[in-house]
Design brief:
Layout: H1 2-25, H2 41-61, H3 65-80, H4 89-103, H5 106-109, H6 116-128
Length: 132
């Protein structure tokens, strides 16, 4: 697990460095007065955020309708920011139903038919998959 985390950290740093270099060579960089481009903390943070959003977009775009609604529901619940950072499978199912009802799209309306065990299975399978 540690090797995977280190590789991910290096990928983020590489992406940040590539973006700084590209900005400087195109004349858009802030480092014109400096002899060499400098990768700053905010460059790494932006690269990390962009990489995360890219991974989520890829996961959602390659998902079935149910999986996409599940990922969106989990994101919505995480945004609410509960004190303990946890929510139940019932919360996830309720959020999925809410999203599917609000969409009005026929392919998402079938989410209403999912029961507790279906959602639990989907969440368990999601936990077994690495999106990175």
């Amino acid at each position: 697990m540690l090797n995977k985390d280190i590789r991910k950290a290096f990928q983020i740093c590489k992406l940040a460095a590539e973006r700084v270099y590209e900005a400087v060579t195109s004349g858009e960089g802030k480092s014109k007065n400096e002899p060499r481009p400098i990768v700053r903390t905010e460059d790494v943070a932006k690269a990390s955020k962009d990489m995360f959003h890219s991974t989520i977009y890829k996961a959602i775009s390659c998902s079935t309708s149910y999986q996409a609604v599940l990922l969106i529901a989990l994101g919505g619940l995480m945004k609410l920011g509960r004190e303990d950072g946890r929510f139940s499978v019932q919360d996830v199912r309720a959020k999925m139903v809410s999203i599917s009802d609000a969409s009005g799209d026929e392919r998402y309306l079938q989410v209403n038919w999912l029961d507790f065990s279906d959602v639990l299975y989907m969440v368990t399978r999601l936990g077994e998959v690495s999106l990175g």
